[in-house]
């Protein structure tokens, strides 16, 4: 069973709507877990952190809820100051918003005029073509390599005089692969200085690859680089929506100008600051998730699956025509995964019981296809 059912047709209206909406791809969120009486159902479709909030963070959020009748601090001062100290960057280099996708929307709005181009790998984060199209810009999709990695040479070749932004998702969602430091530097050497390169690091905390770039060091040496990060994944604040960009001051200032007023709510700011203060506890949880990821990947590869190098909190099955059948098999077993057309399925590393069931379903599916 898949998520990708056709939307009902909209009623006719005399209101003039933008023509680009007709071709706009719909963002497909991970479906909720099935309501099952026969088996415990698990949602492993949205890359959510399976751990509950840390008690100290939850206490801070409860306290902050008492003032929800007031508007939040529009400058997000407390979190901006805390991030600047943690990352060792000037506060003027930071721009915050409702999740990293919200900040990316600010970035596209601040850089692109109608007809400008934005280059990114495909398949990658589903919001990219949506945000680009809504801005009136043109999405330029560059296919991944056969190893499900960014083809940085092809992306550099795709840059034209109309290109304003290049998006590099590392680890890539949904394939989980990263770009290496040397190949990134070689790529950046080919990018014109007036084209902004965005390193989208939503899953940074789960990366163990030794050649993974130090994005902030790259940023410090290159004024046309920006870094996107989020509190939704490793920090487990997906429901509160807070993310940020690090960029040189002119770019960061433009992102703040493009932000919707009060985009980061008071509870989100309080929770993010508290999470930064509890970073040692969070790192323990991240290490446990990474260890569980490695266990799952090893078990799947032992079954014969050829998987890309998983560097986030999910695994990618490049299934092609078998995508829907595999998603249906998972659904039958009480697992809700995330299918992507006819490309493959992404499955989040979740509770150990859910992961064990994924291994079991994947093994049985592979055995049936091999028989």
Would you give an account of this structure?
The chain is of the alpha/beta class and 371 residues long. Helices cover 38% and strands 15% of the residues. It has helices spanning 55-65, 77-87, 99-111, 127-134, 152-157, 181-190, 215-221, 249-257, 266-277, 279-302, 323-332, 352-370, and strands spanning 42-43, 94-97, 117-122, 138-143, 163-169, 196-200, 225-230, 243-247, 314-317, 335-336, 338-340, 344-348.
Largest sheet: 7 strands, mixed
Distance between the termini: 23 Å
Query: Structural class given helices, strands, pairing?
Result: alpha/beta
Q: Which regions are unreliable across 5 or more consecutive residues at pLDDT < 50?
A: none
Mean of residue pLDDT values: 94
The count of β-strands is: 12
Give the percentage of residues in beta strands. 5-15%
> What is the chain-wise order of helices and strands?
EHHEHEHEHEHEHEEHHHEHEEEH
CA-based shape: globular
Radius of gyration: 21 Å
Strand order of the largest sheet: 2-8-7-6-5-3-4
Level of helix content? 25-40%
Number of helices: 12
Which short descriptors sum up this protein?
single chain; 371 residues; alpha/beta; seven-stranded mixed beta sheet; three-stranded antiparallel beta sheet
């Amino acid at each position: 069973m898949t998520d990708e059912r056709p939307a009902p047709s909209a009623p006719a209206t005399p209101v003039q709507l933008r023509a680009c909406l007709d071709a706009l791809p719909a963002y497909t969120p991970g479906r909720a877990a099935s309501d099952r009486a026969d088996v415990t159902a698990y949602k492993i479709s949205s890359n959510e952190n399976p751990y509950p909030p840390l008690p100290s963070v939850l206490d801070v959020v409860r306290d902050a809820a008492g003032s929800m009748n007031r508007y939040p601090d529009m400058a997000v001062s407390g979190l901006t100051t805390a991030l600047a100290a943690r990352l060792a960057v000037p506060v003027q280099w930071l721009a915050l918003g409702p999740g990293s996708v919200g900040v990316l929307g600010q970035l596209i709005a601040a850089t692109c005029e109608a007809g400008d181009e934005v280059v990114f790998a495909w398949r990658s984060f589903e919001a990219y073509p949506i945000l680009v199209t809504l801005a009136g810009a043109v999405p330029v999709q560059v296919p991944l390599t056969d190893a499900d990695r960014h083809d940085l040479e092809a992306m550099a070749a795709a840059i034209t005089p109309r290109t304003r932004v290049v998006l590099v998702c590392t680890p890539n969602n949904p394939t989980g692969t990263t770009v290496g430091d040397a190949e990134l530097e070689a790529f950046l050497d080919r990018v014109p200085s007036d084209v902004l390169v965005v390193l989208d690091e939503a899953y940074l905390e789960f990366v163990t690859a030794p050649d993974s770039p130090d994005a902030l060091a790259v940023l410090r040496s290159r004024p046309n680089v920006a870094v996107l990060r989020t509190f939704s994944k490793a920090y487990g604040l997906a429901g509160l929506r807070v993310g940020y960009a690090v960029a040189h001051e002119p770019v960061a200032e433009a992102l703040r100008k493009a932000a919707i007023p009060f985009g980061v709510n008071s509870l989100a700011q309080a929770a993010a600051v508290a999470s930064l203060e509890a970073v040692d506890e969070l790192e323990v949880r991240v290490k446990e998730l990474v260890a569980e990821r490695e266990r799952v990947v090893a078990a799947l590869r032992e079954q014969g699956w050829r998987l890309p190098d998983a560097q986030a909190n999910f695994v990618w099955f490049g299934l092609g025509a078998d995508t829907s059948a595999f998603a249906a098999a998972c659904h039958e077993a009480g697992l809700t995964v995330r299918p992507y057309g006819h490309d493959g399925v992404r499955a989040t590393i979740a509770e150990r019981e859910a992961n064990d069931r994924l291994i079991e379903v994947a093994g049985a599916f592979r055995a049936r296809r091999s028989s």
